[in-house]
Amino acid sequence: MANLFESLEQQIPVWRGQLKDLAKNHGDKVISEVTLAQAMGGARGVKSMVCDTSEVPPDQGLLIRGTPLAELTDVSAEDIFYLLCTGELPDDAARENLRAELARRAVVPDYVWQVLEALPKNSHPMCMLDTAVLAMQGESKFVEAYNAGVSKDEFWKSMLDDCLTLQARMSTLAAAIYRMRFDKGPRIDPNPDYDYSHNFAHMLGIAEDNPEAADMIRLYLVLHCDHEGGNVSAHTCSLVGSALSDAFYSVSAGLNGLSGPLHGLANQECLNWVLQVRDKFGGLPSEEQLREFAWETLNSGRVIPGYGHAVLRVTDPRFTAFKDFGMKHFGDDEIVQLVGRIFDVVPDVLKEHGKAKNPWPNVDAASGSLLHHYGMTEFPYYTVMFSVSRVMGMCSQLVWNRAMMAPIERPKSVTIKWLQEFVK
Ligand code: NMX
Ligand code: MLT
Hints:
This protein is mainly α. It contains 19 helices and 3 strands.
């Protein structure tokens, strides 16, 4: 089987042909209409972008290149990245080739550590991560290629080069941020013999003699990898990339979007909420107590983190996979039990509340409980974990966009006056 680069080189002409055929022969077909409410409501449901790495049917949840997530819970991070980029799972040789490529690039240059050390000690871990990614922009091979006048149809190659460097360094950066920010001791160097997940667990310092914890990190990286093109971080990343900004600019922008509490930061908010419940009731509350607490949150004008979704209308399969892992390995853990009890109570509360279109849990409702179990109790860190995985999705989308020579994104905005006149 071909390595990642060779596989892309074989498939890109085919994908280009498919897109060209669609545009030439069906370019005037209407695939979506936009109501005034949608224009004012965050473009929810408007089909206006193409993304081939994954899709989220509202009644099923994540399909990665057509495969339901539930069928991919045993694969490695390398497998997922290869699948996102090419549409196929790698064989042993292609997986090892990608593993070695990422391991070779995993060392983070000293100037990045100096930048991080100069930040205020109480910086949010996501601010540290975004800053570190941006700081590396000067190393972009894409910028080098662009400035050298490389042809547009070759841009994907230098984009892939940057993306491999960025992805390789993500886990090194993220692990170091954990250790720096939460006083866990000195940085742990990457081990070039490990695979990506094992290496991340090793550098975090949580899983040296604990293969189960390392497996949880693997699962974490697999489950968060991508969620089609329209979520805030992926969309931001590809929007910025559409201006031919390089991967460092684009991914850093995407990560800033992931840092919002309605998006990736919901995992920190969620564990915070779970711990508030535990602390208020001194352990596992009764269903009635929990119902009251959920109503208190809603009545104070706040959302229940980890519940609801802009696209999904069923329980998120990522939530189910995390919950199953927790139940299998440590079902008696208090936080895992609490997450289960919240799942028994909150959907009915949200239905009664009558606002959320989707009362079911999303990925963030369970992910923190696993990290917490393995000693990663510092919940402001959780979105960084999400990021290491999600950069695989952002990068595979960036490479695909460059390979398809995607145009600069530029939707049309309208004014209130324009809308008033239109509806007259
Ligand atoms: N708790 C309380 N109210 C909610 C919730 C919730 N979990 N979810 C939606 N609503 C409200 C929402 O705030 C909105 O209220 P209003 O009309 O006053 O503005 C109303 O229900 C309708 O919202 P929807 O159309 O159902 O949801 P939307 O597509 O606008 O937003 C989320 C989707 C995910 C932002 C929203 O469900 C939410 O805020 N959930 C909690 C935060 C969260 O878990 N985010 C993580 C998403 C996954 N991720 O990792 O990125
Ligand atoms: C995601 O994983 O990106 C979230 O579930 C949010 C989304 O899809 O909009």
